[in-house]
Amino acid sequence: MAAPRHLTRHDIQELLQRAVDKRFGQTRAPHPIQWLSDNDGIFTALDTICTAERLNVTPITTPAYSPQSNGMAEAFINTLRRDYIASADLASAQAVLAQIPEWFADYNAAAPHSALGFRSPLQYRSERSQFDLAESVS
What we know:
With 138 residues, this protein is mainly alpha-helical. The protein contains six helices and two strands; from the N terminus they run αβααβααα. A two-stranded parallel sheet has the order 1-2. The longest helix has 17 residues, at 93-109. The relative contact order is 0.09.
């Protein structure tokens, strides 16, 4: 059975490495990307910052004691809990980890987001890219 535990900076560094590899299919982002986190020590540790920079990821932290700046992260966590974790197989850590790629695929490709006009992030990015391309041609 999976059991909760506190994350460490090593967990965050591994997460960063896996995320870049999964998203870009390589060990380094092809262009700088921003990574927003809070000011917790696991995110601001020197070796975590160095790992991020090695991956071409620019760490950005939310202002301390500013609940508004943490709203996007909280909304994402609440969506994961409501739409995915509530009906997930939580029997073991392996079972949970096996489901995560499907959750993210659905969240990015199928789930409508109110802030994006009820389109998925992939739909929004695709439409935005087409718009930007049309603007650059004209």
